[in-house]
User: What shape does this take?
Amino acid sequence: MKRTRISILLTVVFFLFNPISALAHTGLVESNPVSESQLSELPREISLTFDEELLVIQGKETNVIELLDENKTSIRLAEPVIDGAKITVQLLESGNEPHTYQVNYRVVSADGHPVNGTLTFTVQSQLTITPEQPVNEEVNESSTISLNIIGAILIALTLIAGHFIYRRMRN
Assistant: This one.
């Protein structure tokens, strides 16, 4: 009976400290402006939405958005506002000067993992388009499915190994 408890305890400890959950990081699911979009003028704000809530630590700059023009000149931005899984920043400059702009971001998901990324958009002065609308980007769920499959395989292997260890210890 004592060996059974030890086997069960080892199995529970293995699954509690299994690193599979650490492999899943937050991902960008929506941006405004949309990456690779063409606009007639600079947007008033930039917003990024992720598939997990963002970590906010008072007094620390954990979530950052930076906007650069094609000359790598930084565009002035207000302090970012975090609302759950969404980060929004107001532009303190406006204009319709033709440039390709680069949005660099670094956010920290609620599980503590930092995520960096970049998206671009272009301002074309003679463009006649309707205002941009936020478009949901497809979430890559294949990585989540893969992690679930790996987890299920590890559970099965652990149970099988536990069974054989238990039988060997019993004999």
About this structure: The mean pLDDT is 79.
